[in-house]
TrEMBL record, chain A:
Function description: Part of the phosphoribosylformylglycinamidine synthase complex involved in the purines biosynthetic pathway. Catalyzes the ATP-dependent conversion of formylglycinamide ribonucleotide (FGAR) and glutamine to yield formylglycinamidine ribonucleotide (FGAM) and glutamate. The FGAM synthase complex is composed of three subunits. PurQ produces an ammonia molecule by converting glutamine to glutamate. PurL transfers the ammonia molecule to FGAR to form FGAM in an ATP-dependent manner.
Family of this protein: Belongs to the PurS family.
Name of encoding gene: purS
Protein name, entry field: Phosphoribosylformylglycinamidine synthase subunit PurS
E.C. code: 6.3.5.3
Record note on quaternary structure: Part of the FGAM synthase complex composed of 1 PurL, 1 PurQ and 2 PurS subunits.
Compartments it resides in: Cytoplasm
Catalytic activities: N(2)-formyl-N(1)-(5-phospho-beta-D-ribosyl)glycinamide + L-glutamine + ATP + H2O = 2-formamido-N(1)-(5-O-phospho-beta-D-ribosyl)acetamidine + L-glutamate + ADP + phosphate + H(+)
Functional pathway: Purine metabolism; IMP biosynthesis via de novo pathway; 5-amino-1-(5-phospho-D-ribosyl)imidazole from N(2)-formyl-N(1)-(5-phospho-D-ribosyl)glycinamide: step 1/2
Keyword Cytoplasm: yes
Signal peptide extent: none
Top-level division of the source organism's lineage: Bacteria
TrEMBL record, chain B:
Keyword Nucleotide-binding (UniProt): yes
Protein name as it appears in the record: Phosphoribosylformylglycinamidine synthase subunit PurQ
Species of origin: Alkalicoccus halolimnae
E.C. number(s) listed in UniProt: 6.3.5.3, 3.5.1.2
Keyword Mitochondrion assigned: no
Gene3D superfamilies listed in its UniProt record: 3.40.50.880
Keywords (A to Z) from UniProt: ATP-binding, Cytoplasm, Glutamine amidotransferase, Hydrolase, Ligase, Nucleotide-binding, Purine biosynthesis
Function: Part of the phosphoribosylformylglycinamidine synthase complex involved in the purines biosynthetic pathway. Catalyzes the ATP-dependent conversion of formylglycinamide ribonucleotide (FGAR) and glutamine to yield formylglycinamidine ribonucleotide (FGAM) and glutamate. The FGAM synthase complex is composed of three subunits. PurQ produces an ammonia molecule by converting glutamine to glutamate. PurL transfers the ammonia molecule to FGAR to form FGAM in an ATP-dependent manner.
Matches recorded under PANTHER family: PHOSPHORIBOSYLFORMYLGLYCINAMIDINE SYNTHASE SUBUNIT PURQ (PTHR47552:SF1)
A GO CC term attached to the entry: cytoplasm
PROSITE patterns cross-referenced by the UniProt entry: GATASE_TYPE_1
Active site: 86, 194, 196
InterPro entries attached to this UniProt entry: Class_I_gatase-like (IPR029062), PRibForGlyAmidine_synth_PurQ (IPR010075)
Protein localization: Cytoplasm
Length: 85, 227
């Protein structure tokens, strides 16, 4: 079976995000005073051939081993089966 | 004494590292390609700076799955000196041979200049030629050198004297000005500044030479005891 997996990598709470801080400042300069903060994260699309009963396990392994650095990053994911048209 | 310089696709300080060993301290040195799997014939392992695998994803994250890294971990477990500089440091962090992680520099700029470092721990196999609190001038060249670790790790780093070098003026936003740390055993050193680029006065500073000389001195002493 084929799955489309979307992985979101975000900063762990408390880890300074210098890019987010720079963009926050820039938005303030544009007059968006209501902006309290910006966090810049990564989104990855993975198309994966797998069995239905182990697709999630594979995604978690990929995140832990390579896609995220658990020291500074959290991750979430969405798994969607690709229905052949 | 025989040094290995590991070459990853994208390493670009490998020649400087080779030069530092061959010319500055006059020891044997060989390049080792990242697809090799054995480092048993070497006494010390050097991971040079650069952009392994183009720094895609995160610096060091892909290199840590290179075949040679199993041999690097083995060398580290055997107590051999393992030095990672800049991207080499990032690879050591991603491999969990050292604790913590690197973020983008706080000011978001790539920083390329010679900066003063303070020697915090002169009692390691990498720093025995320095004195405590020595100020040494070593070039930095990095975009992701902002060292981070959690409170628990920071306490452990301090308790075990694992902080070896700090920036005199915090260059990149690193926690507690950290420029270089060792593992708990003290035989794996990661540092963002480039000692291999400071081994001759012609280069603007020769302060990095003592780091390589320290490794050689420690090895000679150990070797003399065991033979």
């Amino acid at each position: 079976m084929t799955f489309d997996v979307t992985v979101y990598i975000t900063w762990k709470e408390g880890v300074l995000d210098p890019q987010g801080a720079a963009v926050t400042e820039s938005l303030h300069k544009l007059g968006y005073d209501g902006v309290e903060g910006v966090s810049i994260s990564k989104m990855m699309k993975v198309r994966l051939q797998a069995e239905k009963d182990n697709v999630e396990q594979q995604v978690v392994e990929m995140c832990e081993k390579l896609l995220a650095n658990p020291v500074i990053e959290d991750y979430t994911y969405e798994i969607e089966e690709v229905i052949p048209s | 004494m025989k040094f290995a310089v590991i070459m990853f696709p994208g390493s670009n300080c490998d020649i400087d590292m080779f030069h530092a060993v061959e010319e500055a301290v006059g020891e044997e040195v060989e390049y080792v390609w990242h697809n090799d799997t054995n480092l048993d014939r070497f006494d010390a392992v050097l991971l040079p700076g650069g952009f392994s695998y183009g720094d895609y994803l995160r610096p060091g994250s892909i290199a840590h799955f290179s075949p040679i890294m199993s041999a690097v971990k083995k060398a580290a477990e055997e107590g051999k000196p393992v030095l990672g500089v800049c991207n080499g440091f990032q690879i050591l962090l991603e491999s969990r041979l050292l604790p913590g992680a690197m973020r983008r520099n706080e000011n978001l700029h790539f920083i390329c200049k010679t900066v003063p470092l303070r020697v915090e721990n002169p009692d390691t196999m990498f720093t025995n030629q320095y004195q405590k609190s020595d100020e040494i001038y070593i070039p930095v060249a990095h975009g992701d050198g902002n060292y981070y670790c959690d409170e628990e790790t920071m306490t452990a780093l301090k308790d075990n004297n694992q902080i070896v070098f700090t920036y005199v003026n915090n260059t990149n936003g690193s926690r507690e000005n950290i420029a270089g740390i060792t593992n708990k055993a003290g035989n794996v050193l990661g540092m963002m500044p480039h000692p291999e680029r400071a081994v001759e006065d012609l280069l603007g500073s020769a302060d990095g030479k003592k780091l390589f000389a320290s490794i050689v001195k420690q090895w000679r002493e150990k070797h003399a005891i065991t033979t």
